[in-house]
Amino acid sequence: MDERDGGRIGLFGPARGIDSGDETDGPFGAPAKITVVDDGWGPIGLGAITDIVKHAYGLVDLDRSPVKLGPVAVRRPGCPACAGEQFGFIAGLVEAQERMCAPHQQEAVTVQRERLVRAEVSNPDGWAAIVDASTRLSQPHLPGGVLSQLTEIEPLLFGRSDRDVLAARVRLLVETAHGFHGRVDDFAAVLGDSDLPGWLMCLVSNLGHAGLAAEAVLVADALTSVDPSREAFFAGDASFALADAAAVLADAGLAAEARAKVEVNLARWPGDFWIRMHAGDALELLGDRDGALAHFEAAQQMAVASKSFEERRDAAERISALDGSAARMAKVTVTRVQPRGKKSKSRRR
Fold it and tell me: Per residue in 214-253, pLDDT tens?
């Protein structure tokens, strides 16, 4: 127990009747005395990892006894091994090596290598699990249970699920994403990817198609917080999602909100190809074919000016699908193919 402010603090708050000093010994002896070392959470250590791995994979012969290195011919002042110190294995030995003399550094490396090789040979699967878990301790991660709930979003989107459950999972995603402001690599890592995964890049527009307009806008804002460099991308998706939700739900209020979002985006990013394309997508969903065509043609001219083959193709496909004719496709001539500098942003539905 830890004495604080005159009271005793237990693991879950003030201790009641434990170690008060006036209890008599019961049939099992004196009450246990529990000391709280730290009132915060920290990563588990190698010992806990080893115990968990032992339960799942069997014993791994990892010698973690303290290391005391042998004497050397010439003792160097400042070398902890020359001073006769012992070192915990593995971290203590590794951390002390830079302060050791050259002979002791070499011996420390040899001891470390021999112990690790013996551990791996004794149980390759178990050792691989220990190494993997230890490595993950230094990587960003989410609290227990959160990741499994986030990975439910994609199947919930396309399955016959309760919309309230899907909305709850999405709002958990939004809350989680806001904790990774400007840290897109870390957020991708906790989701098990090197970049934002495909299902997440498509989530804003897919939520609109599911009729979850408010959640779509929240996700667009949250992902922009994570990766500000994609702000225009997610803003365009948000306008498309609002229009899609308006069409799905026949909601005039959402339709007006979608048009307003389109205008805001165009004013802020007038020269962005995909802002213009999603403006056309949104107006098409709202039944404004003429307005949509005007935006698609404007996007086509942008693509011609930038000499982007992919963008010219995407704009031409939109126009062809909109007017029901392939005549416009013939007007698009290919001069050269631009190397792909970033992920394709073709229409996601």
Answer: 999 999 999 999 999 999 999 999 999 999 999 988 899 9
Contacts of 314 (CB under 8 A, 6+ apart): 277, 303, 346, 347
- Record the pTM: 0.59
pLDDT digits (tens, 9 = 90+) for 78-107: 999 999 999 999 889 999 999 999 999 999
Report yes or no: 238 and 206 within 8 Å, Cβ to Cβ: no
Element holding 8 (H helix, E strand): strand 7-10
Burial 28-39 (b: 16+ CB within 10 A, else e): eeeeeeeeeeee
* CB atoms inside a 10 Å sphere around CB 260: 12
Are the C-beta atoms of residues 134 and 62 closer than 8 Å to each other? Answer: no
Note whether 165 and 156 are within 8 A (CB): yes
Helix (H, G, I), strand (E, B) or coil at 50: helix
Residue 177 tokens read as 């994403």
At 181, phi and psi to the nearest 5? Answer: -60, 120
Contacts of 335 (CB under 8 A, 6+ apart): 307
